[in-house]
Each structure stands twice: as structure tokens, then as C-alpha cells.
Amino acid sequence: MSLDAAVSPAVRTRYLCDFSIDFDEIQTIPTGTGLRLNYVVREGVVTGDRLSGTFIAGGGDWITIGTDQIGHLDVRATVRTDDGELIYITNTGRVDLRGGIAERLGAGEALTSKDLYARSAPLFETGSEKYAWMNSIVTVALNGLAPQHVDYSIFEIL
Fold it and tell me: Which of 47, 53, 86, 104 is the most exposed place for a label (fewest CB within 10 A)?
């Protein structure tokens, strides 16, 4: 069987949850690799039928913006669910800052996932029996950005 025959023509997803995260501090560091932006999580909420809770302060979002104006995401954070369980999250993705997007964000504009191409792939880890199913899923997120704030709509790949 060829690879083309094994790939489904459509990817099915199921809504998982939304993230809404505020950042305390933003460090801007020019490097030889690109401009690094380090965001420290102040607070955040997770809302959804299968997952809800709050972000524990201190996680972070490390973004490197290359000379091509593409942002490379590297996120690490912990959620405490509404029932007290801990879930560790890692997330990588891309943000296309070309076409005036960087300038709009720099001017303080809040942009939704319809305004810009910002996509990521959160992964979850937990020792909780109740949420153990999250250790085996792959997700994709549509991201919205604003100064010191990010929103995610997260979908499980079925």
C-alpha cells in the first residue's frame, strides 16, 4: 500500500477545551538565532466539558522570531484541574508575523485565529488516573494573540 492510500483525505477532530492565559513579564532578547521573547505565565483558565482548571503561575512561553518573521513556539506550563489534579503541558507551533501582523501586535491590537496564522500542538502529561486518557492523545490548537495574553482553542485529533 502506498503512503497516499494510507492517508485519510480528511482529518477528524473533537473539541477539547479553551485556554486563556495572561503573562506577567516579557523579556526581549536579541540573539544570533533571532529575537527571543520569553513570556512568564501570571494566570490562566482552562474551560471545556472534558477539561477545566487554572494555570499555575510560573510556566512560560518562549518564542523565537527568525529573520523570516516566523515565530517558533516552545511552551511549558502546568494546569491544576477543578478537581485538584495536575497536568503538565508542552506545546510547539508556529506564528506567521508577516504581512503587518507583527506591527499590529506591537501596536497593542488583539488578534484572533481568524486574523493570523498561529497554530500549535499541545501535548499533555499526567499521573492522574482520571485524566490518564490525555497521555495518549494528540491535539492541535488555533491561537489568538494580544500583548501579554494568548488564547487557544484546542481540538483532539481522532
Answer: 47
Paired with 82 in beta bridges are none
Give the three-class secondary structure for 135: helix
Helix (H) or strand (E) holding 36: strand 35-47
Q: Distance between CA atoms of 68 and 45, rounded to whole angstroms?
A: 32
What distance lies between CA 31 and its chain's CA centroid? 23
Distance separating alpha carbons of residues 50 and 13, to the nearest angstrom = 14
Domains of the chain: 11-157 (2.40.160.20)
Instruction: Please check whether residue 27 is in contact with residue 7, taking contact to mean a CB–CB distance below 8 angstroms.
Output: no
pTM of the full predicted structure? 0.91
pLDDT digits 0-9 by tens, 92-151? 999 999 999 999 999 999 999 999 999 999 999 999 999 999 999 999 999 999 989 999
pLDDT in tens, 24-61: 978 999 999 999 999 999 999 999 999 999 999 999 99
